[in-house]
Amino acid sequence: MNDLTSLMRPESVAVIGASNTPGKIGYAVVRNMMSSGYKGEIYPINPKETEIAGLKAYPTAIDVGKPIDVAVICVPAKATLSVAEDCGKAGVKFLIVITAGFKEVGKEGRELEEQLVEIARKYGMRIVGPNVLGIIDTHTPFNATFAKEMALEGNIAFISQSGALCIAILDWSLKNGLGFSQFVSMGNKADLNEADFIEAASHDEDTKVICLYLEDVVEGDRFIKVAREAIQRVPVVALKSGVSSAGAQAASSHTGALAGSDTAYSAAFRHAGILRATTMTQLFELANAFTTQPIPKGKRTAVVTNAGGLGIVATDAIELGGLEMARFSEDTIALLREKMPPMANIYNPVDVIGDAHYDRYEIALNAVLLDPNVDAVTVLLSPTAVLEVDKVAEVIVEANRKHPEKPIVAAFTGGFAVEQAVEYLKKHGVPIFAFPEEAVSTLIGMTEFAALSEATHNGEEWVFDDVNSERVREIFDSVREDGRDLLLSPEAAEVAECYKIPAAPSRLATSEDEAERHAVEMGFPVVMKISSPDIMHKTDIGGVKVGIESPEEVREAFRSIMENSKKAAPEAKIYGVEVQKMMPQGDEVIIGMVKDHTFGPMVAFGSGGVLVNLLQDASFRLARGLTKREVDEMITETKAYTILKGFRGAEPDDIPAIAEAIGRVAQLCRDFPEISELDINPVFAYPKGLSALDIKIKLS
Ligand code: COA
Fold it and tell me: In 3-state terms, the chain is what percent helix, strand and coil (to 5)?
């Protein structure tokens, strides 16, 4: 682990490019450091000044002559290399490089950035940035940014790839009362990246949730490893913007065409246990909820409302979002029956009805919180003339305090009439919204995180030790020696056999005798196809014969396929004729693999056959670290699953065999990183077993 303690809790900070001129960044950073309440030493560095903001200024970092943990660099880009050298010589541990004009501006900037990294390496310094707003740690306290204000003290660690976004969020958070433990702008990530900051924040005792804004991820494997460890202690929520290049490189395969531009990030976040927010609003709503409310232990949600309509809207959102309406215990129902008026609805949603005063909320809320069948509560309110809205807010805060094990979210729908109560709830850490769906959406996110986190506890990579990787290596070597990157069908079928992925037997025949021998060995009927990487539409040129039943027909088919192919494509390199056992029809699925630049191979499963691209029914997971549980989820997520489990009275297919085949494909792709694309389409699924019909393997 990289120890970032001296970065987040430094004992001394130098500001290189500190200035006495208001409006300059070097001016703002020194003032922010001083006004943040920072208790360590601050050394302004400026060759022209002797004093800055009442502090002694030094010409260079070397002249300080005392240990410096962090140097904040705010000199123009062309001066950064020499000041970094000075910092190295002065024994600085971390550089926060605010200066812009590096890789984000093109080739020259990129070279400058590389030189900066080189200097840092030489002296064992670590870099934040360049091109950053800086860093805040509210508990140190420490504000090494040029933001207008210091963040409020709180428990959210916000780690952002965009500095300008940091500034905006900081200002917004002050108005909305959201507090942070750490505020990190990562900029160009020339050295330290999201994995380092997630790791550091997850060990920070003042952090209760890690909130990420990412445009890309630098080290895929490390990011996942670090995040999986981090979520054992704190939830991690991420907003990922921008489209990645995932899948694009393999768009020539069926699987590649099924993978969307963002599939890899979704798969990676899920495997890492990171909760993905889809909007910025959601990112901060979830962050706020995780710092103020406990994580729900299950999906059973109670609703308390004084307006039937709001209750129905919430019920819909709960059910559509994958939560469940709690079924109350008999005790709860008996209590509500006794205390509520006869017109009230005492089942979930509990409707205390329009003439309710705050005391009905108090009774209902405490009753459902005590109910063992309830995991979380949503309180809804419409501000009637008879209701003491502020009192209801107090009741909620008190109930939340008395039952710290169950989360409460609220929606007070109204304007001026609810304003004060909303402020009160915000101040006391109850997530409060204007509308029921928003409140429910936060509970859905929290519950999803609970499930993600649980999944990361359960599961070792699914590994098979009965595979023959030596033979696969030989096959790949011989394909390369032959100057190809695409395996012939019989070669691909043999690779599958080596990994015990059941494939329709397929052999290459270079003569009529050989074709007959193969056919007799595998048993009739067989299919025969021309074997040539240069001939695409084999059927169209008479290069395919199906339903061959006898040795005579095999010989005849061999002759005609060779003749037709030579005539249609005289230049094509022909390896012979492929003899494949003709398999009985099964339900058609696809198993495949597509590669992502950052996260490596992703396996896919879905509806297969000729309609594969039309159906667009596929689920993806990372091949690395793939667990049995993830494979089972992959299958059940697809529409193909409806067919496999026995549609309209049909006998169910062998789903465990399909799961195993997916696991084995994942292992093949992990073992051989040179496989750049893999498509098995169709796979025939049967009530007992399966058969891979058409296997395409491409090497990089
Ligand atoms: N050592 C110490 N101080 C030095 C120096 C050196 N080698 N070279 C110059 N300085 C001093 C300057 O004299 C000046 O101090 P002064 O005001 O007393 O004259 C100070 O450092 C700043 O230099 P200056 O040339 O005035 O630059 P600037 O303040 O106009 O711009 C940056 C510097 C870093 C702000 C600018 O280059 C930049 O990168 N701006 C964009 C920052 C950004 O957007 N970052 C991303 C945010 S999300």
Answer: 40, 20, 35
Contact (Cβ atoms closer than 8 angstroms) between residue 127 and residue 188:
no
Question: Is-contact 457 331, C-beta < 8 A?
Answer: no
Residue having the nearest C-alpha atom to atom 14 of ligand 1: 17
Q: Which CATH class is domain 587-699?
A: alpha beta
CA dihedral 60, 62, 64, 69 (to 10 degrees): 100
Atom of ligand 1 nearest to the CA of 129: 46
Q: What pLDDT sits at residue 250?
A: 45
pLDDT for position 243: 58
Q: Cβ(136)–Cβ(151) under 8 Å?
A: yes
Look at domain 5-207 and name its CATH class.
alpha beta
**Is 21's C-beta closer than 6 angstroms to any atom of ligand 1?**
yes
Does domain 469-581 fall under CATH 3.30.1490.20? My reply is yes
Distance separating alpha carbons of residues 15 and 473, to the nearest angstrom? 56
CA 170 to ligand 1 center in whole angstroms: 23
Would you say the CB of residue 243 lies under 6 angstroms from ligand 1? no
Element spanning 642, H or E: helix 640-644
In angstroms, how far is the first alpha carbon of the chain from the final one?
Answer: 33
pLDDT at 248: 41
Task: Measure 17 CA to ligand 1 centroid, in angstroms.
Answer: 5
Whole-number Å distance between alpha carbons of 461 and 576: 40
Tokens 């990129």 belong to 110
295 close to ligand 1 (CB < 6 Angstrom): no
| Residue spans per domain, the chain | 5-207, 294-457, 469-581, 587-699
Structure confidence at residue 134 (pLDDT): 97
**Relative to the CA of 185, which ligand 1 atom is closest?**
48
What local confidence, expressed as pLDDT, does residue 355 receive?
95
Superfamily name and number for 294-457: Succinyl-CoA synthetase domains (3.40.50.261)
Q: Is 666 in the pocket of ligand 1 (CB under 6 A)?
A: no
CA 465 to chain centre: 30
Within the chain, which residues score under 70 in pLDDT? 1, 243-252
